[in-house]
Amino acid sequence: MDKQIMNDILISVIIPVYNAEEYIARALESVLNQTYEKLDIIVVDDGSDDNSLDICKRYAACDKRIKLLHKQNGGQASARTYGIKRACGDYITFLDADDYIDVETYANIIKKTDIRMPDVIAYNLIEEDNEPVIKKNKFPEKYYDYEEMQKDVFPYMLCMENFLNLEFFQILYVNS
Fold first, then answer.
1. Taking residues 147-174, what's their average pLDDT?
2. Would the pTM of this model clear 0.85, i.e. be above it?
3. Do residue 101 and residue 149 come from a single domain?
4. 140 with 58: CB under 8 angstroms?
């Protein structure tokens, strides 16, 4: 991919927040410290009744990429949908308030895309309890056409009947 095109891709990061005062700073720091900086960071406070909103306000005041939204509590799916409606990125990704990502996550994703600009990019998750465990999704790394998406991918995605309604998809699985 042309370096200029690669640097022009805007990624919307939606972070739903509900009573996450002990985790949200780490989540926000992990996004703000990304080596890929062209980010539209949408933090949706879902009616928190702890100090989460105040923490988010402090971060939003320090970084213009953060859009802080507040809504009445409706659950994580509701907060994500609220964020999606306000996203302006070429890609949308989600980060839970109690999770964090490696500083190279978005740079690695952008490097793996090419001129075809896939519609969906799936990547791995590292789950930490006592020891880090890499959780790989079940999709082989390749581009999928719409029929393959319907057969091999959609059944494993949440809320597909409401989430994606397109006639053609490309997906690239990033094995990071």
1. 55
2. no
3. no
4. no
Cα(172)–Cα(2) distance, integer angstroms: 18
Q: Alpha-carbon torsion 78, 171, 42, 134, what sign?
A: positive
Q: Give pLDDT tens digits for 58-76.
A: 999 999 999 999 999 999 9
**How many domains does the chain divide into?**
2
Mean pLDDT of 143-153: 76
SS (H, E, C) 63-83: CCCEEEEECCCCCHHHHHHHH
User: At residue 44, what are phi and psi to the nearest 5 degrees?
Assistant: -110, 105
Higher pLDDT, 7 or 95: 95
Distance from C-alpha of 99 to C-alpha of 95, rounded to nearest angstrom: 6
Same-domain check for residues 66 and 106: yes
Q: Are residues 21 and 70 in the same domain?
A: yes
Taking phi over 0 as left and psi of -120 to 50 as alpha, with beta for the rest, 75 belongs to left
